[in-house]
Amino acid sequence: MMLALELAQGIIAKNRRSLARAITLVESSLPHHREAAIKLFSLLEAQVEPKETLRIGVSGVPGVGKSTFLENFGLRLADMGHQVCVLAVDPSSQISGGSILGDKTRMQKLSLHVNGFVRPSPAKDTLGGTALRSREVITLCEAFGFDRIFVETVGVGQSETTVYSMVDVFLVLLLPNAGDELQGIKKGIMELADLIFVNKADIDENAAMRMVSYCESVYELIHTPRSGWRPKVFLGSSIASQGMEELLAGLNQFDAYLGNSDFKTTNRRQQRQNAFIQELKVLLWQQFMGKQGHEVNRVAQSLLENNVSITEAVQGILKTNQ
Ligand SMILES: Nc1nc2c(ncn2[C@@H]2O[C@H](COP(=O)(O)OP(=O)(O)OP(=O)(O)O)[C@@H](O)[C@H]2O)c(=O)[nH]1
Ligand SMILES: [Mg+2]
Question: Is the CB of 66 under 6 A from ligand 1?
Fold first, then answer.
């Protein structure tokens, strides 16, 4: 348990190396690391005062410019005195392994800034509990003193809903020229967004403006997000530093909106509750497979060969486990 104490003291003393090591510990699925991580959280909880923080999810298709945007926008906030960290959640990182290197180089200034911290996605997926581990990493960063926590995720498949389930604000980056299908506009991403930023407007400003109008017209038709806030749409360029002030004003407006309602508190409570259920499901499944894995595999195999009813097969497994 010495390790947990050492890391907790390091985090409270604002030692970045300790924070980085603590994150590695939390992301590990080795049982003795898990034990140390639990100890670490109990030590931190005892000492850290609650603080006003904003957790911001940033999503969008690969290459839309999320990392470039975060370098620009994050530096701006860091210069203003905010403590800014950028985390990445990328359940598909085995496939798109290139973005890890990219993150380090693309957010270099922010990672070297005295108020900045950048943590690329873990090299391998943690056992099942990606969402929970990421929540824990957010907790570590808040304990360290970061007040603007960005979580970057590739807007494909499950990862955007995973990130949505752990943030207060959801920001979606769009390309001016890519189709609805590719960007998931029709697949509900817009219902998750609180803020939209049409990036790369420097390439084709007219197309970017058309995309803004299009998004606004979609918002005439669909439900507004969970908070009741009407989503705002911006355009600009992360490379040419355009539109950043407007977006920042939009973010501050949303922050003020959250401050005036109890949405942030209730949402965070709800998220904790959901995370608890999710974690329990994952652990129960792992435990069950640890004991009954052979039997489950045997029955699964028999489904390939025989016309057994699925319900019967499931009931059979559950009975043998009683
Ligand atoms: N012209 C232009 N290029 C941009 C802009 N923002 C980003 N880029 C470029 O787009 C490419 C992808 O940028 P990234 O920031 O890595 O994109 P990403 O969304 O983080 O990509 P993944 O992490 O792989 O999903 C890079 O070559 C950037 O230089 C912009 O506003 N204008
Ligand atoms: Mg990136």
Answer: yes
